[in-house]
Amino acid sequence: MTDAITVGGLETYLACPRQYEFAHVYGLAGDDDAEADRIDLLRRAICAALEADPTEPDALVETARTRLAALWDDHDERFHSRAQRRHERRVLEATLRAYADRVGLEHARGVERLRAAAEGDPELVGPGRTLSCTVSAPVAESEPGDGTDADPGGEKTIEANVDYVYAAESSIVAVRFVPTLAPLGLLRYRSEWDGDVETLFADHFDPDADVFEPSPIAALFETAVVLDGLRGLRDRLGLERRTCRYVRIPLADRSGTSVNWVRNSVEASLEIVDLTDVYVDHHTYGMTHEHRNATVDGRLERVVGRLISGAFDPSDRWERIERRICPRCEYAVCCQERIEREVRFDG
Ligand code: SF4
User: Its domain of life (predicted)?
Assistant: First the structure.
């Protein structure tokens, strides 16, 4: 394997290594996610509005709404009815308004500030702006029964997509629009690494602990990749004195949406999560003065080492994978572990 690994691929690998093999080694990953496609329309509309350098929230909303209307006309999704199609459009527009009122103008100004402060004319707004880091994978441990040989390790590029980068007071901040914050689990409700989050991270990788939380772990890996990529961008822009931060904004969080069916109106609120605080290990920060986490970075290297060595056997976490991941897996009909489990004789 020579291509870069995406953070989405890493999340799949954490959930089930065999699923990663089907999706990314055999190239069977599908992209038929209607909600993700809908979010992508809003993402593109907001990015277009940020590029237009709006001076007030209404201007941002208007530019984005115009772009959204054009994208929506070409959007081909099967809805139950025209009423549902109209409703989904209203939800997107309400989310757009919530974004503009909460942070849109501040972020648009931050994009312009960063552009003005940077040397050159950097590409700051996506969608799909890639930040990457290079991971030096150690020699992979060959484990009994996983079907791999020890791997000599090597360097691998890990890529993460963000939607834009802007300047805050003393930081540069990468923002990624996501459907919801639900995959963050505990990370959504904590503001520091020490304590619950540190324990969750350790327990996920402890074969004796009954903890299996691939999505929050993947979010911490993603934060490591984004911050490292952002540090590279920051240095190339000549802004070495700034710190780097990473924020997620959900665009399809139904818990933040309220519908008035009588007035036929929709209102949305926006919860924004800055993953930097929950990721930062203050011991490492104290030594490097960078937002880093030695535990997460070290584990990321080991997971990447296992992945590039071809360790796709899910046996060592089978019970958890079978319980949590297999029931929703689109490769179940061709997965030998799953099939063997289904046709075995009990007793
Ligand atoms: S069916 Fe289960 S074991 Fe097989 S690839 Fe899917 S999640 Fe993994």
Answer: Archaea
